Structure to design on (456 residues):
């Protein structure tokens, strides 16, 4: 299969692993963060970290949008889902994310009309087929997903679909990266940059990392050979004393991004002054709301929601996992009280979450405890 | 078997498509081939690697039947038959 097979070639992977060993200074211990959940998933799925020398550690970043949704926003979603006449639509993973009093799946079991969709367009289709009901789409995701929501809202407006609204939880990638780089409890030596987010925003927004923080960034594809090559490119920069944004995924990522996507996002969304991230707290200008032109389609204006900030469960260490301070299996409840079947924290819900990725690929086993 | 060989074996055994990936993840993109265009509505009928058909928004790319698009959450973000294919 073009674009895939050549990037899963084990011989190429072994050759890159050998080159990585030759390139890295054995006297150093390097921490490289893979920003997005897609990379985390691939690393565990293919055992990429087993091919790396012991002194090159991959740290899992905050790029799984399910994992960074705070419990209070899930509670707001559940409150909307329970409104009379509402059909609440969301991506599948969001149905299992625990709020302070259950999940959307449990709300559905209790009688709320919660439906899983694969795209915002599916949600709009439901709205058009059920004109007597209010249809809310739970929009989450980084800049890769935001254009899809934006186009659907434009379409709904153009077609005059008045019973469709959006609970907007879109976030942007740069502010949390800056927050991580400013965090005193984390020392990182380089970044494996997000591949498809960069398809939309381009690689240019990542230039602040080398410019302001002196760390190399390599925008990477998702196959194992992509990730190994990106690690090698970062190590080569460090060895040569260089520090810049490089694009390993140039077969997909245009350095300038997709200008049409950026235009439609600018029309439909506006920056929130701040937004809460699970484990990272409130980050300035990191979340999107609907712009004034689309305010009438904002579900937060159409429905009354609790809007309460809920602290994470004490046992859950998702915040430390998301910041890369601890690795998934170092969490107190990993694989025991918290499993993909009964997640406590968001990192165990999404298959892109570091904990679920690690758990699902059998990289760790432990006797389960009943709590 | 060394851990290196074991990892290579895993890599070989996992040569599947992206079906295991989370639709919600912002960095998930799936290649799909355009079967038919509905230019008036800005939509395309596309086929994914597993042969399933999907309706895809194509407002952000220039697409023609037969082109391979990178699709995320029902929207084509890139035409892989463009300059960088």
């Amino acid at each position: 299969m073009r674009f895939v097979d050549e990037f899963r070639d084990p011989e190429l992977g072994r050759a890159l692993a050998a080159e990585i060993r030759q390139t890295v200074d054995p006297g150093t211990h390097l921490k490289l963060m893979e920003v997005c959940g897609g990379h985390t998933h691939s690393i565990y799925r293919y055992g990429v970290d087993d091919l790396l020398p012991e002194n090159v550690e991959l740290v899992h970043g905050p790029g799984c949008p399910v994992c960074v949704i705070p419990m209070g926003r899930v509670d707001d979603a559940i409150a909307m889902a329970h409104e009379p006449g509402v059909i609440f639509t969301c991506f599948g993973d969001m149905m299992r994310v625990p709020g302070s009093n259950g999940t959307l799946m449990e709300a559905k079991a209790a009688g709320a009309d919660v439906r899983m969709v694969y795209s915002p367009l599916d949600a709009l289709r439901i709205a058009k087929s059920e004109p007597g009901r209010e249809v809310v789409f739970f929009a989450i995701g980084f800049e890769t997903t935001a254009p899809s929501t934006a186009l659907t809202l434009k379409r709904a407006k153009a077609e005059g679909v008045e019973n469709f609204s959006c609970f907007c939880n879109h976030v942007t990638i740069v502010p949390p990266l800056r927050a991580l780089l400013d965090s005193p409890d984390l020392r990182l030596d380089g970044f494996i940059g997000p591949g498809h987010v960069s398809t939309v925003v381009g690689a240019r927004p990542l230039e602040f990392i080398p410019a302001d923080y002196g760390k190399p960034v390599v925008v990477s594809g998702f196959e194992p050979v992509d990730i190994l090559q990106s690690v090698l490119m970062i190590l080569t920069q460090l060895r040569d004393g260089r520090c810049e944004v490089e694009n390993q995924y140039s077969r997909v990522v245009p350095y300038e991004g997709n200008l049409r996507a950026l235009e439609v996002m600018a029309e439909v969304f506006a920056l929130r002054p701040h937004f809460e991230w699970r484990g990272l707290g409130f980050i300035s200008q990191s979340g999107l709301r609907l712009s004034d032109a689309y305010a009438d389609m904002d579900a937060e204006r159409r429905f009354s929601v609790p809007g309460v900030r809920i602290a994470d469960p004490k046992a859950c260490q998702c915040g430390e996992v998301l910041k890369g301070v601890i690795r998934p299996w170092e969490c107190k409840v990993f694989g025991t009280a918290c499993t993909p079947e009964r997640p406590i924290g968001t990192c165990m819900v999404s298959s892109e979450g570091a904990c679920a990725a690690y758990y699902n690929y059998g990289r760790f086993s432990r006797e389960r405890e009943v709590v | 078997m060394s851990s290196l060989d074991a990892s290579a074996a895993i890599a070989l055994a996992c040569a599947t498509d992206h079906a295991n990936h989370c639709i919600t993840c912002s960095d998930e993109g799936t290649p799909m081939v355009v079967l038919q265009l509905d230019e008036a509505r800005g939509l395309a009928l596309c086929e994914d690697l597993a042969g399933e058909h999907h309706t895809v928004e194509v407002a952000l790319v220039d697409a023609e039947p037969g082109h391979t698009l990178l699709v995320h959450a029902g929207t084509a973000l890139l035409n892989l038959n463009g300059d960088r294919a």
The longest strand of chain B covers residues 30-38. The beta strands of chain B are 30-38, 43-48, 53-57, 68-72, 75-79. Confidence is low (pLDDT under 50) at residues 1-21 of chain B. Chain B touches chain A through 41 residues (CB under 8 Å).
